[in-house]
Structure formats: C-alpha cells, structure tokens
Amino acid sequence: MKTRFLLHEEELPHRWYNVAADLDRPLDPPLDPRTNEPLSPEALAALFPRTCIEQEMCSDRFVDIPEPVQEVYRRWRPTPLQRAVNLERALGTPARIYFKYEGGSPTGSHKANTAVAQAYYNMVEGTKRLTTETGAGQWGSALAFACANFGLECTVFMVRVSYDQKPYRRAMIRLFGAKILPSPSSRTQAGQAVLAMHPDSPGSLGIAISEAIEEALHGERTKYSLGSVLNHVLLHQTVIGLEAIQQLDLAGEWPDVVVGCVGGGSNFAGLALPFFGEAQAGRRSRPRFLAVEPVVCPTLTRGEFRYDFGDTARLTPLLKMYTLGADFVPPAIHAGGLRYHGMAPIVSRLVADGVIEPLAYAQKEVFESAVLFAQSEGIIPAPETAHAVHAAIELARRCAETGEEKVILIGFSGHGHFDIAAYDSVVQGIG
Amino acid sequence: MKTRFLLHEEELPHRWYNVAADLDRPLDPPLDPRTNEPLSPEALAALFPRTCIEQEMCSDRFVDIPEPVQEVYRRWRPTPLQRAVNLERALGTPARIYFKYEGGSPTGSHKANTAVAQAYYNMVEGTKRLTTETGAGQWGSALAFACANFGLECTVFMVRVSYDQKPYRRAMIRLFGAKILPSPSSRTQAGQAVLAMHPDSPGSLGIAISEAIEEALHGERTKYSLGSVLNHVLLHQTVIGLEAIQQLDLAGEWPDVVVGCVGGGSNFAGLALPFFGEAQAGRRSRPRFLAVEPVVCPTLTRGEFRYDFGDTARLTPLLKMYTLGADFVPPAIHAGGLRYHGMAPIVSRLVADGVIEPLAYAQKEVFESAVLFAQSEGIIPAPETAHAVHAAIELARRCAETGEEKVILIGFSGHGHFDIAAYDSVVQGIG
C-alpha cells in the first residue's frame, strides 16, 4: 500500500495562494490606535519591507514566489504527505489519516516558509538586521536560519519560560548566528516596565513582540519580522496546502476534515486556506476545518471578536481578531507556540463566519495522543502539533464507533526533538 | 540550479548489495575463541535469528529486501541527495559537494535501516524481545523504534555516563516503549560483578554488551541485536549507497571522492560499498574512499589488523579487524558513536587492501567545520557526521587552491538535534 506521497522539486508551487481574493467581503482593516482610522501602508514602513506591506493589502488570488525563495525552499520542499497507517491500525478506525509533514525543514517546522520569504524581501530592500520575538523557539530559529542564509543580522527576544525550559532551541538560534535575549529583558523600555511590576514574569508572546518592535524602531536599517498572525505571513504558508492538494490527488483522496493547531494561526491557515480556495472556486467540496488550541489559552473558543492590540505594550496597530485581551498571560504549558492572546484576522474572520470550527484540549490528553502517534508512526510531534494530532485521533476514534470512512488531513507543523524533556515527564506519568 | 535530488517511493531499491561477492578473496572467518577454529553458524543461533546469520555468511551479490521492511523504509526513504551550494560558495571552491542525508529517519540517523531489518527477521522467527547496548543512544533509539513497529519488546543497556549526560536521547528510547537501564546494572551477573568492585562505575560499551548478551541468553524467546560491525548490518545499510547512485545519475555526476565517518563502519560502508561494486563490475571508475575517525580513537590510522574480541569482556567471537585492543577506552568526546576500539571486518579488509583511505581529525576542527556547514546549509550535523563534513571541507578547500572541480559525496549519517549542548559550548568558544 502506498503511504507516502512525494513531489519532485519541479512540482514545488511557484505561487502562493491569497485567500483575500475569495472572501465574500474584505477583511476589517487594521486601525491606527491614535486615530481609530484605517492604517496607511506608510505607517507600517518603519517595521516591514515594502513588498510585505503590499502583500498585506493585496487582493490578487495568487502571488509569485521569488526564484531565490524557491531555491531555498527546495532544500526541504516539497515536504512529504504521509498516511498514518500504523496509527489507523492502532485505533482500529476505518478513517484514513494523512499528515503533511513540515518537520523536515532546517529548523524543524513550517516557520521557515515565511522566514525565508521575509528575510529575502528585507535583504532586497536593504535591511541590515531583523528583530523578532519567539515563544518555544520555532519561529526564532527559523528566522535565524533565514537571516544567516541572506546575510542579515538577527536579534531574537525569547519568552523567558521557554528560554529557561528549552536550552537546546536557544542554542540552535545561536548556532545560526543570531543574538538571543530572554524576554522580558532590561534592554527595552517595554521589558523594563514589565520587570518593574513583575520581576519574575514568565514572559509572553505579547511582551516579546513589544520588545522586538521597540528594538526595530530604534535600530539603524533594522526592521521587525512577525512569524504569524499577519496576512502576508499566512500567504507565505499556503505553499503547504498547495502541495498537499497535489499530493492528495496522487493519493486519489480529498479530505473530509482538515485539522491543525492554532497559536497565531499561520500553520493552520497555510494548510487550510488553499482547500478553502478550491471549494470557493467550485472545484471541490469544502472540508470541515478544525482549529485546535489549548484550553488554557482559549483564544477562539473563549475570546471576543473585536479590535485589539497584537502586543502587551500596545505598540502594534489594532487588529480585528479573536482575543483574550492584550494583557492576557497564559500559563506555562509546553506548547509555547500556542501561548498567544490573539489570532490571525483571516482565521478569526473565518471562525466568525462559521467556516472554521475551533476546539480546545487539555495538555495531558494532547500528550497522550502524541505518545500514541510517536509509538505508531515513529515521528515525535512538537507539543503544538500534538494538539492537531489529538483532535485527529478523537475524530478517528469516533469513526471507529460509527464506521465512517472519513479522510482526515493533519497539519503536522513540526517535530518535537527539542521538547523531549516535556515528553519524558508525561511518558513516565503514562507508562 | 537543481540542488536536491529526490526519488519517488517506487524507486526505493528492492535489494541490498552484498560486497562479499566482489571481494577478490573471502573475508577471514570469525573464530571461536575457545578453539581458534572458524565459528559454526549454529554457535550464533542463540543470539541472532537464522536469516541474519545466513546473511552474515552469504556470498550472493544482491539480497532481497523483504516487502514489510520496504514498507517501513518508505516512511522516510528514499532519503534526499542534496548539493551543498551555499557551502561551496562559502568556501569559494570549484568542487561540487553532495551529501546523502540520513537525518530524516524516525530517530534521526542511518541506524534505523538495519534496526528495522533485524527487528523484522526476529519477529518472523518468533522472537519476543530484543536486547542491545547503546552508547550515545542513536542505536538504542533506532532499535526501540523498530521493535515498537513490529510488536517486539526491547531492553536497552545504556552506558551509564551517557545515560546521565544525554537525558533527551534516553527519553526518546523510553518514548518508543523500550525498557532502558543504565549499565552497569544490578540486573545481570556481569553488571553485578562490576558494581561489586566499582559501585560508581561510569560503564563502557564493553560492559553494556556483556549485559545485553547475558540478558538475551537467559531470556525466553529473547535475542540480541548489534548496530554495526557485522556483515549483515553493513548489508542492510547499502540501501544508502544504492539510492545515492540513482540520485547522482539524476544529477549527471559520479563522485571523485566518497567520504564518511567510521565508528563500527556501517554508515560509511552503507554509502561506499555500492560505489565499489559499480567499479568492480567495470561500469564506472572507482572513487577515492575516505573513512574519517577521531584522533583520540584512531582504530584505522593507528590500530593493528588482527583477530580481536568485539567487546571488553571477551564474550564475542574473534573478528579479523583493525583494533586498538579490546581493553582500549577512548576519552569522552562528543562523537560517542565513533568511540569503538574495533572496526567492521569488511571495512578493515578494504583498508588493508588500500581501497579505503583512513583519516583522523581532532574534535575542535571537526566542530568548526560542522558550524560552517550548519550556518551555510541550515542542517546541523551529528558530532559523528561532522567528521565526514570536515574531511569534505578540507578537500574542497584544497580544490579552491588547485582549481580542481572534484565531485565530493558526503555520507550525512545523522542530525545533531540531540547534541546541541555540545555545539553550544563550541559555538560560544568559536563565535
């Protein structure tokens, strides 16, 4: 039985898919918090390169992937689509479970897809250094890799709890030549303000974003790079879903359900949006889209859909999104990449419209499913990815009861090689 | 420019290549240490399944890969062949550097290739449990994965110093469902004897082998599994070189030099032997074969070619090989997989015959090259693999001086995700 679907490098998509062309009405624009008026593109120019701002506002259905970006992509893309036959057997389910595996990128997750694009556009437009934040370190290591590739300097503010919990990921960022600081740090006013009130703050993505933005605004030829949430970031990630569609064609399948984890929403959107586009074009049926988050950071399941800041220090524009409030600091779960108070405006809109269904699970059940996946398939999911895996396993178990032969597609956003310590405690608890 | 050469899953080799058919005279046989006479196959039957013993003695040029083994291989094989263009640019070399990337296996190295085959043959022949030893943990995790896949139990004796120093690799072994004990343990007589004399013994591979063998001999339907050195292990690894030949054909290349690291010799042989076979058959020119070891464990460059035991406790048959003496204890370098006193008899013979050239490098220069590779190509080599990378970089630098456009093929045996702590100290030292 064929279980792995590979594309040759010449089958790598040459264009990203832009969902803005297929929404029934435009997204609510980002607002300038001083005026509550829609933000002008110029207002973003201090932070982002021109091309990324254009992509943020763009309504073309497809956007060309620059050849130098494709060249870097080809080092690990197209990524494999794999059928989890052993997992299906272990579950005794008639469901067919596929996963799109992004763990083979240089830094082990989907984050490299947009890191390479953003570093490239910055390089072309004369940026010398990029600043960013990172939670568990997936995004920070991806941007460090991309900057090393295009000869840019890189400064990463890493959420303190992850900085302390994940020394290997921190070391990887340094290995790629980037500078890394625990956040909140004393380097920025935003960090100082938090430390003054909470000297033992575990940090949050919201705080780290404030620090990275402040650092970019004060640096020479320095810009800021965000690893999720924004439209252009989601755009770059659609290479995942575009490949998956080609690969499911090879398998002769179309998914009934597409499931991914959501922190800021980019990995989920990167997989799901091209399937949405196919349905909007009338070419295929629309799958169910399941966006999975942790119960302790329930942005989509418990948050409000309203304008809010993307960061704690309120330096960002106002975005219309699901939010738990810009001050929300989630508890220190292992899935650091899902500890974000907000959600991509595109994902938020599609949740509000009922196209995407949100789900929340607790850490323990998520890890139990991740262990089952690892023992069946031999691949260890990142704690973030484990949320998607758990939701898929729950679906497949239901199919075992009902006899339904559903086709389930998992967005396997990254491997858990740097999260083994987290597994160790959980496996000892389970085993 | 095309830089990545992928094969579809149906292009996975269906047969392993057996170099025994192409040697100009048979290998010197393993001897029974009690009689100094060639060992009978029956003498090995208590430890290994019948099929592995047959493969150990086999002289057919090709051996079929069983379909269930191919099915597991296809989860990560064929593995990519990649051209290291960025590294070439960084070196300013006219050489073309390719690497065959084995880091994408479930446990991150080539070890899974033989672990899956050995677990399969054991399962078919009714084995219920496998025992083994592991140093740094690459082999232990690969066998744990393979046993989980075929429903076998697995007991791993891990050298105590590594058990304490490498909690991530230890946790990975447990995650795949294996039992893991620090060696020396109180579970075996061999372990008890050591502990009685040295309660704080850090352990050694020699002691761990003794424990694993004793455990196998006393267990019901329990056999023992070795991750390198033996002919059948090298046979299973030839899938690497067979794929690489197909992929270099796609690239329109034939290597001038094939370079790999050597501990017991299996990853190097797995890549190199099929190229040797092509040359013996008169179809292609014979590349230079470079086998790279650490200066502090200089088995090939400083050892003697003679009969010796495979373990410190002298429980194994006598093998004709390069050896530093069964009592040799190498210092605790990061490349734990290269800390072995002996060498595969096949590799040893070809070194003695001048077909394979041995080279030895020091840890510091090896790590400096590994950092350059990681920063150029975005992939972090295991400390063992880094030895091959360093030798290739030295060759490419010489080409930059002479202007020679050599084609260099690196055996990239595994990633360094579990060795980041080692890098961290070195990068801080370098950077």
From TrEMBL, chains A, B:
Tell me the GO molecular function terms.
L-serine hydro-lyase (adding indole, L-tryptophan-forming) activity; pyridoxal phosphate binding; tryptophan synthase activity
Can you state which reaction this protein catalyses? Answer: (1S,2R)-1-C-(indol-3-yl)glycerol 3-phosphate + L-serine = D-glyceraldehyde 3-phosphate + L-tryptophan + H2O
Q: Which cofactor does it need?
A: pyridoxal 5'-phosphate
Question: How is this protein annotated for GO cellular component?
Answer: cytoplasm
- EC number(s) stated in the UniProt entry for this protein: 4.2.1.20
List of residues that carry N6-(pyridoxal phosphate)lysine: K111
Q: What's in the keyword line of the UniProt record? A: Amino-acid biosynthesis, Aromatic amino acid biosynthesis, Lyase, Pyridoxal phosphate, Tryptophan biosynthesis
Q: Decide whether keyword Amino-acid biosynthesis is in the record.
A: yes
| Coiled-coil region list | none
The organism's superkingdom is given as Bacteria
* Family annotation (SUPFAM superfamilies): Tryptophan synthase beta subunit-like PLP-dependent enzymes
What pathway is it annotated to? Answer: Amino-acid biosynthesis; L-tryptophan biosynthesis; L-tryptophan from chorismate: step 5/5
> Pfam families this protein is in?
PALP
What InterPro entries does its record include? Trp_synth_b-like, Trp_synth_beta/beta-like, TrpB-like_PALP, TrpB-like_PALP_sf
Q: Which residues form the Tryptophan synthase beta chain-like PALP domain?
A: 76-414
Q: Which NCBIfam families match?
A: PRK12391.1 (NF009057), trpB_rel (TIGR01415)
Q: What the protein does?
A: The beta subunit is responsible for the synthesis of L-tryptophan from indole and L-serine.
User: What PANTHER family does UniProt report for this protein, alphabetically?
Assistant: TRYPTOPHAN SYNTHASE, TRYPTOPHAN SYNTHASE-RELATED
Give the HAMAP family listed for this entry: Trp_synth_beta
How does the annotation summarize its subunit structure?
Tetramer of two alpha and two beta chains.
Q: Which family does it belong to?
A: Belongs to the TrpB family.
Could you tell me what this protein is called?
Answer: Tryptophan synthase beta chain
Q: Which organism is it from?
A: Candidatus Bipolaricaulis anaerobius
Q: Gene for this protein?
A: trpB
